[in-house]
Amino acid sequence: MPASLSYPSGEQIEISRDGHRATIVEVSGGVRTYDVDGRTLLDGYEAGELCSGGRGQLLVPWPNRLCDGRYEFDGQAYDVPLSEPDKQNAIHGFLRWESWRIAERAEDRVVMEHTLHPRAGYPFALHTSVEYGVGADGLTATVTATNVGGRRSPYGMGVHPYLLAGDAGVDDVWVEAPARRYLTVDDRQIPTGVADVEGTRYDFRRRRQVGKEAIDTAFTDVARDADGRAWVRVWSGDQTHGVGLWMDERYPFYMLFTGDTLPAREQRRRSLAVEPMTCAPNAFASGDGLIVLAPGESVVSRWGIAPLSGSG
């Protein structure tokens, strides 16, 4: 592509260290690629390609769906544009198609930032920064959101990477995921309740193959390690290698998505989307996990991706 022309995802920022290499993009401030010693861990997209399926995008100031694009906050009712018109929902916030600015940059790290100014449906001012780093521990992301306005603001965020554990596709991979409960939904993917995973097709607490299961489901009540991290691990068919995504306590929810409804048929069931979320779908309306920031207040959340080897 000629230097004078822009990529669909804007500027491409490569960071690398110890065989770990990632590409961070200007549009959405998200992750386009991540590989370790030549092994691809993310099912991303080409530099000259338009991002599809939310691949690697940051979802701010809410992840997933908002029913009818409507919510109430501090006694006021608000409406935001319906970005999922077929289901009459607003989906994934405002910033996934916005340009983010490079605030700091080094060989192995970059800080992307964006200020969301008040707008119709969201009359709040929010500054978000994401510091990405790569190294022996994998790819790490530290997200800091700050209310830079003069009134309380509702906030949530998520990220939408697709994990790639091999070339065989979702049917053959093995998954370990720590949630004890999942969210039931209606036909518009809006939560209706919570159920135990025990005895259901949503129970991945012990490693098992996905097989033909079609999953587009939010999970909660997650088990964590001694460091407070919850891990979702995706293993290759022979279980010799894989990729893991961890999230800290600020992420009490995550989505698993097998990609069955992606518009491009060649992308369906190719990889597993694992989406950490600070709140539940429809949280602006339900309040489930919603973070409320006072003027000047910040909240920090961390997640990361790392290669797995051996049988685990």
Q: Keyphrases for this structure?
A:
single chain, 312 residues, mainly beta, nine-stranded antiparallel β-sheet, six-stranded antiparallel β-sheet, 1 helix, 27 strands
Strand line-up in the sheet with most strands: 10-11-12-13-27-23-22-17-20
Mean pLDDT: 96
Write down how many β-strands occur, each being a DSSP E stretch of 2 or more residues: 27
Low-confidence stretches: none
Structural class: mainly beta
User: Tell me about the biggest sheet?
Assistant: 9 strands, antiparallel
Strand content: 35-45%
Radius of gyration: 19 Å
- Count up the helices: 1
Helix/strand order = EEEEEEEEEEEEEEEEEEEEEEEEEHEE
Note the gap between the termini: 42 Å
Principal-axis shape equals globular
Please describe what this structure looks like.
With 312 residues, this protein is mainly beta. It has one helix and 27 strands. It has one helix at residues 283-286, and strands at 12-17, 20-25, 31-36, 39-40, 58-59, 65-67, 70-73, 76-79, 89-91, 101-105, 109-116, 126-135, 138-147, 153-155, 158-159, 162-163, 174-176, 179-185, 191-196, 208-209, 216-222, 230-235, 241-247, 253-257, 272-277, 291-293, 298-309. A hairpin with a 2-residue loop joins strand 12 and strand 13. The chain starts with 11 loop residues before the first strand and ends with a strand.
